[in-house]
Amino acid sequence: MTVATDPVLASDRPVPIQLHTFASPFGPLTVACSPRGVCFLAAEGDRDPWQELERRFPCRRASETADAERAARCLSEYFSSTDMSLNIDIDLRGLPAFQQRVLVALCGVGCGQWCSYADLAAKAGSPRAARAVGGAIGRNPIPILVPCHRVLAAGGGLGGFSWGLDRKRFLLSLERPAGTAWASSAARG
Q: Most buried among 1, 11, 24, 50, by the most CB within 10 A?
């Protein structure tokens, strides 16, 4: 997985964005891809991909959809537990620097692992910013691929999730092998 975080200049050409909507256990999901990777994942009733993306960089709709379809297939394999790797390039360009740092650190929390908001703040280089980390992941434009569902409250409670706690529970149970306890990524270093 590569993560694009370089700045986007106002003078840059509009970024071609591919959109593809596919069925998921949560209902329809729409994946948006730039040439650098997945830049937005929206559930039905979620934020509008175009409005969100236009805040980040100049964009236009691409006629091609192969990359977005490939990302949708990868997510479908994840939901069916066929392939849990989610090895897809992501594009975080246009997000604030602090949020990028937090989301890049979050990508290091592997499938079947979890961390607390404080753990993630330390990983992102801001150990006293657990509350700000919560705000940064609450605006995560690519849930699942940037696994904000793997962040739990300090006492082990669920904390929050922009797509709702039922979906967070579903994702955590999907990733947790039957009969095993959660492994904190903080305990692993």
A: 24
Number of DSSP helices (H) and strands (E) in the chain, helices first:
6, 9
Task: Give the tens place of pLDDT for each residue, 139-152.
Answer: 999 999 999 999 99
Instruction: With beta carbons less than 8 A apart as the criterion, state whether 106 and 137 touch.
Output: yes
- Model pTM score: 0.88
Of the residues 91, 118, 137, the one at which a domain ends = 91
Task: Show the domain range for 128.
Answer: 97-181
107 among known catalytic residues: no
45-48's contacts with Cβ under 8 Å and 24+ in sequence apart are 46/162, 46/163
Residue 64 vs residues 17, 32, 68, 149, 164: alpha-carbon distances, Å? 9, 12, 9, 30, 32
Exactly one of 33, 59, 115, 148 is catalytic; which is it? 148
Helix (H) or strand (E) holding 140: none
What pLDDT sits at residue 11?
65
Residue pair 8/94 in contact (Cβ under 8 Å)? The answer is: yes
Same domain, 77 and 125: no
